[in-house]
Every structure is written in C-alpha cells, then in structure tokens.
Design brief:
Helix content is 37%, strand content 24%. The chain is an alpha+beta fold and 347 residues long. A hairpin with a 3-residue loop joins strand 2 and strand 3 (29-30).
C-alpha cells in the first residue's frame, strides 16, 4: 500500500446531449441510447489529496469542500457514493480523502453539473488506483473504467470522459455501444468546430431534479414510444454527424430538445422547467435562422437554459445577434461562451 501523502486532480467538462437520455433502470442504466457533444468551458475542477488513515475508522473517510466552502449536502452524497464503490476500489477504506471541487458554471440549473462533477470524481479515483496499483493496460482501459464509474454517479457523466462526442447506451447501429459505459464517437470534422453559447435564463436551482424526472418515466404513458423514438432518432443522427449535414442536425436536435420537455409536461405529476424567456429565445433563434440561412439551432438540457449551437465559421454573424437579440432574456445578461472540446484534462 502507498504510504505517503499524494494528490490527483482533473478538470472534466460537462456535455450536452443531442439525442436525450430520459428514463433509466437498474443501477443507472439508460432506457435508450444517447449521443452528446463534449464541452470545453463548462467544467468541474476536482482534486483529491489522500493519505493512509491514522486511526481505525471504518468505512470511507473524507473531508469535502465545494467552491472553497464546506457543503454538508454534497459531502453526504459523495460519502454515500464512495461507500458503494468500495467493492470496486477496496483502497477507499484505507485512506483519508480531502476532496475539493469547483464549477465554472452554476450547479443544479440544467447544465449537467453532475456530468462534469461525477466524471471528474471518477477520473480522480482511477488516477489514485493507477498510482497505487498501476492497474491499467493503456489509456483506453483507463477511460473505459472512468466512464463506467462516472455512470454509477450520474448517467450522463459516462459521456464526459471522452472528447468531442460520445455515445452511451446500447444501440444496434453503433459498434461496441453498451449500457454500462460510454464510447467515443467519431464525427465529421465540421461538427468538431461547433460553438455552444449557453444562455443562462436562470441561475436558480431547478424545482425538480433530474433524478426525480427520470423516476417519473417509470409510469409515463408514453415511455415505450419515447424509447423507440429516441433510438430511431439516433439511427437518423449517426449518418448526419458522420457526413456534416447541418440541416439534418438542426431538425433532430431541436425536436429532441422539445420532446424532452414535453415528457416532463405530460408526466404524472407534470412539471415545467422552461421559463417564458426560454421560449422567447427559441423564437428569436428560429427567426434569425429563417432570415439568414445560417445553420444555428438550439438544444435544452433538463432546465430553462438554452444551448445555442452553430459552426464556428458563422461566429462573426451570430455573436452580434446574441448580444442584440438574446442577452435581454438572460438573467443579468449572463451567458457562457463554450464550444465542442477535447475532453478532460489532468491538472
């Protein structure tokens, strides 16, 4: 066993799903396959300093800081999660962990903060295992395990360990796809250039968590139809992503965003995470696209904030539109300028 103090640290990005995962079974397994863009500037920084325990304390021992402050709620969630991982990482019961985490964006507001945080945690744990046991044959094996561990904490986190784009969930048309972990997805280089401006309609914590929303799919009247539709959507999106078809991309991605929120609205009990300003932004985007033929589009995560997607070659036309037409609908004119990115970084 490693006997001196050590530290690992990772920066892991959030991701934005294009075909959405909404509904799960078992231990964080998806009812349908999904595909996402990996982001760059919406990320979690996480460090874990670890040392052998100085006493005979049972279980997992940790001290947790979020944004430099103690956060009992988050610490308890991490504690419970790490306890479930002891069969996978037995060394967790032999160490004391000092975990520090921070986000570059508001948490619990619909920008998949769990994806970036749980993927960062999984990468840190795999790095500790690598330092202690030298247990990975290569980087592919390392990321494979990190994806599977991340999934156990947050389903969408499985996709954040890979650059550019990732598929999570078994799909007939995608070789090596699986429910237990995500795999990288190779796109046409055109989509690797996509910008993603995140328009923050609200920084507030969501009124209904994603975990609760997923659970409502268990008895949803349209659940089976949705899962079939989602897999069909992915079948149609795969060749679009591989050939660089921007118009086909728009049609599927916007439909998926609205379908996600439609499922929320007709669940029982129903709930609405969209705000009036979300709809104003969507209408402005569609009008601008109609008038200019610039292939920008929107997608939504499980919250009111809007992800504006467009090729970088149109940035000089799109950015003035954002400033003039869209920022008035954002809380405090706040937005995050992001883009498709090259995945997590060890820091």
């Amino acid at each position: 066993m490693y006997t001196k103090d050590a530290q690992v640290a990772w920066r892991s990005p959030s991701n934005i799903a294009l075909v959405k995962y909404w509904g799960k079974y078992g231990i964080q397994l998806p009812r349908n396959a999904s595909v996402s863009f990996t982001l760059t500037n919406a990320y979690t920084n996480m460090s874990i300093a670890y040392q052998p325990k100085s006493n005979n304390e049972q279980g997992v021992s940790l001290y947790f800081l979020f944004e430099g402050q103690e956060n009992a709620k988050f610490a308890q969630k991490i504690q419970v999660f790490l306890e479930t991982l002891v069969p996978i990482f037995p060394f967790l019961t032999q160490l004391h962990l000092n975990i520090s985490s921070s986000n570059s964006f508001p948490h619990s507001s619909g920008i998949a903060s769990s994806a970036s945080s749980m993927s960062a945690l999984a990468l840190c744990l795999c790095s500790i295992e690598q330092q202690l046991l030298n247990d990975f044959a290569d980087n592919e094996a390392f990321l494979h395990k990190a994806s599977e561990i991340a999934r156990l904490g947050s389903g969408s986190a499985a996709r954040s360990v890979y650059p550019y784009a990732a598929v999570w969930g078994y799909h007939n048309d995608i070789a090596d796809s699986a429910n237990e972990y995500a795999i990288p997805f190779a796109m046409h280089p055109y989509f690797n250039t996509y910008c993603n401006t995140i328009l923050i309609v609200s920084r507030a914590e969501k009124t209904v968590s994603s975990r609760a929303g997923h659970a409502l799919m268990n008895d949803h009247p349209y659940a089976d139809a949705r899962y079939t539709h989602a897999n069909n959507q992915l079948s149609n999106l795969v060749p679009i992503l591989q050939t660089g078809d921007a118009q086909g991309f728009i049609n599927i991605v916007e439909n998926e965003a609205l379908t996600l929120h439609g499922l929320m609205m007709n669940s029982n009990p129903s709930f609405i995470l969209l705000h009036p300003n979300t709809l104003h932004i969507i209408n402005q985007i569609r009008a601008f696209r109609h008038d200019t033929n610039i292939p920008l589009c929107f997608t939504l995560d499980a919250g009111p904030n809007v992800h504006l997607l467009y090729p970088a070659e149109f940035a000089t036309q799109v950015q003035p539109f954002i400033q003039t037409n869209l920022l008035a609908y954002c809380q405090d004119n706040y937005f995050i300028e992001d883009k498709v990115g090259d995945g997590p970084q060890k820091i």
